[in-house]
Specification:
Rossmann fold, alpha/beta, 12 helices, 7-stranded parallel beta sheet, 12 strands
Length: 331
């Protein structure tokens, strides 16, 4: 079976080829994203694989269906870029990669937090100029700080376990209560308002839904009471209203923002814009802000995670090819 892999990155292609080595799956790769302009590339393929930057809107799904595509497997856990209900109506089978490596993303969240708290970026810049003074490098301990985690799913749970090792006071907020987290890691479930009043650090580990879109907005930020608050986002960019976040940083409402995602990253992240630059003025401001640490959606990018993603992708395809139901099907 031939499969077209959209948004194929040079770093993942060897992993995909290795995972498909002993199967009847024949992979074809395009570095281009799935858009209305690139749909035609899928002609002749019954299955495609897409990434988080690909857009499978209702219009695109309808056109893919006309071209004979029947199966879509996502090389990501999140699937906010595809309308599952619409996909089902067109007869598509959809599967994702839900468990590729919560540890990779959770560890990156803590790395972002510690880099910001301990001024590591500035320190690196100073020593490169042979400046070994400690001016502007005084940080603060994470130990005994109150850290809030929004979202206690697979990634949030790992974040909580790591924070417990730092001896933090851990607050959490989720639609469901996890008694194991309360028992084993002494977490306290509180409201979002209480998080704003009590937390020194807020870590976002939520999916992007209609309920979480712009959850971190002017209203939320105005409720923050601590002067040293750092917000870390390893969920989705659209959870944070960036303009409101920048205003909060400029006014001193919050101390810092560390993020691996951006609300308008589609078509921007994962690509090299060195030559032509970028036009997004909000993103430029975010990048150049002295209180912001931004990484290009790399939290998932570990050898272990990419191996899991690619093996899961081939597993999903093999199941469909054999007429079996994958455990990762979404519809």
């Amino acid at each position: 079976m031939k499969v077209l892999v959209y948004s194929a990155k040079s770093f993942e292609i060897p992993f995909l080829k290795l995972a498909a080595k002993n199967t009847t799956i024949k992979l074809a790769f395009t570095k281009e994203r799935l858009t209305e302009e690139t749909i035609i590339k899928s002609k002749g393929f019954k299955a495609i694989s897409i990434f988080s930057a690909d857009k499978a809107s209702s219009v695109i799904l309808e056109k893919l269906s006309r071209l004979g595509v029947k199966y879509i497997t996502l090389r990501s856990a999140g699937y906010d870029n595809i309308n599952i209900k619409e996909a089902k109506s067109y007869g598509f089978t959809i599967a994702n990669s839900p468990k590729y490596s919560p540890n990779a993303i959770a560890e990156h969240a803590i790395a972002l937090l510690m880099a910001l708290k301990r001024n590591l970026i500035l320190a690196n810049e100073k020593v490169k100029n042979y400046n070994f003074t400690l001016d502007n490098l005084i940080g603060s301990n994470l130990q005994k700080k109150t850290v809030a985690v929004l979202g206690t799913g697979k990634i949030g749970r790992v974040i909580i376990k790591i924070l417990h090792g730092f001896n933090c006071n851990i607050l959490v907020n989720d639609i469901e209560t996890d008694e194991e987290l309360i028992r084993d890691f002494n977490v306290t479930y509180v409201s979002k308002d209480d998080i704003c009043k009590q937390a020194n650090v807020i870590i976002i580990s939520l999916p992007l839904t209609s309920e979480t879109h712009y959850l971190i907005n002017e209203s939320f930020l105005q409720k923050i009471k601590k002067e040293d608050v750092i917000i870390v986002n390893i969920g989705r960019g659209g959870i944070v209203k960036t303009t409101a976040l920048l205003e909060a940083l400029n006014s001193g409402l919050i101390k810092g923002y560390a993020t691996d995602v951006y609300e308008k990253e589609s078509g921007m992240f994962f690509y090299n814009h060195t030559q032509e630059g970028i036009e997004d003025e909000v993103l430029k401001t975010l990048i150049n802000h002295p209180k912001v640490l931004l990484t290009p959606h790399q939290a998932f990018a570990t050898e272990e995670a990419i191996t899991n993603i690619t093996e899961t992708t081939i597993y999903n395809l093999n199941c469909w090819l054999k007429g079996q139901k994958s455990s990762n099907e979404l519809n």
